[in-house]
Design a protein that fits this description.
Layout lengths: L1 H16 L9 H17 L7 H11 L11 H27 L1 H30 L1 H16 L2 H25 L9
């Protein structure tokens, strides 16, 4: 087999070193290299079927040697701790919401406050890039000018009064002693 490889390598070398005209067909050279690669490919050992599966299974069974750790092991504990903390917070909030309806309003207000704060933080971050404050100032001036008219002031005042009356009625209805509430 080695003699075949030596003979084909010699053939490749002689065809490659022959002076030729640029652009001439290299069919003989291609055939020589093709024969060499085919011969070399036949000699390369192939793994038996299932080799990769057996290696992976054996690697899983073997203990990790001293001084080494499993891939991703340094992130497992912090991620598990974060998931545990989040799960605890969610469970406590769910329990509080189930037993205290006042907490629902507090949590909703907190969520609105955080959402508005996050939106403002994003706007504050993007303001120099896009010049959003000049647009917001223009919109604010237009709204302020519209709200200072007598009609808008009356509508705003009536809306505030209606909201206060609705809040009072809802409070009386929920705090009524005669009617038991599921809350």
């Amino acid at each position: 087999m080695t003699e075949d490889i030596d003979r084909i390598v010699e053939r490749c070398m002689t065809t490659a070193l022959q002076p030729g005209i640029a652009g001439q067909d290299d069919a003989e050279e291609d055939a020589a290299f093709g024969a060499l690669f085919t011969l070399v490919e036949r000699q390369r050992p192939q793994p038996r079927p299932g080799f990769a599966r057996r290696v992976v299974e054996r690697a899983r069974r073997e203990p990790i040697s001293a001084g080494r750790r499993a891939l991703g092991a340094r992130w497992v504990r912090p991620i598990a701790a974060a998931v545990g903390i989040v799960a605890t917070v969610v469970a406590v909030n769910a329990a509080m919401l189930a037993f205290q309806p006042v907490v629902v309003a507090e949590r909703f207000a907190w969520a609105v406050r955080v959402t508005v704060g996050a939106g403002l933080a994003i706007l504050r971050f993007l303001a120099p890039v896009f010049g959003l404050w000049s647009v917001a100032t223009s919109i604010g001036r237009a709204i302020a000018t519209a709200l200072t008219t007598p009609e808008a002031s009356l509508a705003l005042s009536l809306t505030a009064i209606a909201g206060a009356l609705a809040y009072g009625a809802l409070y009386r209805m929920l705090s009524s002693k005669e009617e038991s509430s599921v809350w």
